[in-house]
């Protein structure tokens, strides 16, 4: 079962798939404008259908609430370029900046942040690693702090002329 809800405390629309948080759209509010920052989804829920459903829910909610939208999120911009009926949600002064500029070859999923990366084994070989110098690995160093009587400690120049 899929549920999308607006978590106003964390300023994000959350998508739940069978009770698990699958992803969200992060936003911020400024007067009567919703500034959509980015879309994030767990890798195991990677699906154009889920992303489109989540983004369309956001757009429809903005329309119902009679808010303006500032789509800083590239996934949302790409979807809005495909579905031009949502263009009036962007303030007229900003439409040229936000809309009609996305790559027509890319889909919204190409701009989504994914979490839960697949497990990978390290490709580093033993010969690729550099030995750590003994002085660093033991926490010792040749640097010593200046003494309190040093005039540079208080920000004075090193050479103080005699008067």
UniProtKB/TrEMBL annotation:
Domain annotation N-acetyltransferase: ranges: 5-91
One Pfam family, short name: Acetyltransf_CG
Domain of life: Bacteria
InterPro entries: Acyl_CoA_acyltransferase, GNAT_YJDJ
Start-end of Polar residues biased regions: 132-144
TM regions (residue ranges): none
Chain spans, region Disordered: 109-163
Protein known as: GNAT family acetyltransferase
Organism: Paeniglutamicibacter sulfureus
Source organism phylogeny: Bacteria, Bacillati, Actinomycetota, Actinomycetes, Micrococcales
